Amino acid sequence: MMSGWLSSPARRSILAQGAILIAYLALTVVMTWPLTPQFFSAIPGDSFDGWQNYWNLWWVKLALVDRIQNPFVTDILFAPTGVGLYFHTLNPFNGLVTLPVQVSAGLIPAYNTVVYISWTLAGYGVYLLTRYTLRGVGRGRARYQQLAAFVAGAIFTFSPFHMAHLLGHMQVMSLQWIPFYILYLLRSMDRAQGAQIQGAQTWTRDALWAGFFLILTGLCDWYFVLYLMLFTGFVIVWRGIATLLGRPRAGLDARPRGIRLVGVLGPALLAGSLFAVALSPILVPMVREVTTF
User: Fold this and answer.
1) pLDDT per residue over 102-149, tens digit each?
2) How far apart (Å, rounded) are the C-alpha atoms in residues 107 and 55?
3) What is the pTM of this model?
4) Which residues contact 162 (CB under 8 A, 6 or more apart)?
5) Cα(191)–Cα(178) distance, integer angstroms
6) 202 in Cβ contact with 263 (< 8 Å)
7) What is the CB neighbour count within 10 angstroms for residue 154?
8) List of long-range contacts for 11-20, beta carbons under 8 Å, 24+ apart
9) Which residue in 207, 218, 223, 225 could disulfide with 188, CB within 3.0 to 4.6 Å?
């Protein structure tokens, strides 16, 4: 059984995806040089905001591991009354994901690990999104599609915007979840609009994945959540107009327009609901703080 799996297409696919990730990691090492030889001794930046995010990593670890308390409230700042950090650029995802590194190796390598994670996954996410977008285009030219997708990922992750935020804006450099959200939102909408066509796959799983990646985005930077909400609105309007004005065809488009619109709105509503429920412990205090200011 094991030998059969080792020779299966699934294994080859896993190895291929692993190679893509390694390639983006290798390019990240080159593009962020000399970060690698100074991985344990220095952080990239201009000696300003980088140290604030350095503190963020330290505080998340202190709050969750040492104190076992809510990291969005601290008595270390503005002592002795303390202050809330709900509107602070805490980007708790980075603090959580690098906890093992911080505990075992220290704060500096934990900070630099965030850089490698962000640049590698950002490129890979756009690679997957581009492959999905190019599906069915130029059949028989899979290699060209793979190359185009890889180049698109490299352009995105090594863009001037991304590289500029190596100055120390950790919450902004953590843009890696944006393409994953877009990918699963579009996939869920495509599948929802084809839900009654024979052989079409369910859309709910992809919509939940979109919600999951929106949650991760919110745990990095709220501005990116706003941008993705705007993007989602544009997609809904565009697809809604296409659905209402499109000429009926057999299968999907033969259904009543109201039913077809469910395929446009359903995935976004499910993803947004998951996001709102999962992050309600953060969103509710933020709303309360704004309304009582």
Assistant:
1) 999 999 999 999 999 999 999 999 999 999 999 877 665 777 889 999
2) 9
3) 0.91
4) 118, 119, 122, 156, 173, 175
5) 20
6) no
7) 18
8) 20/124, 20/127, 20/150
9) 207
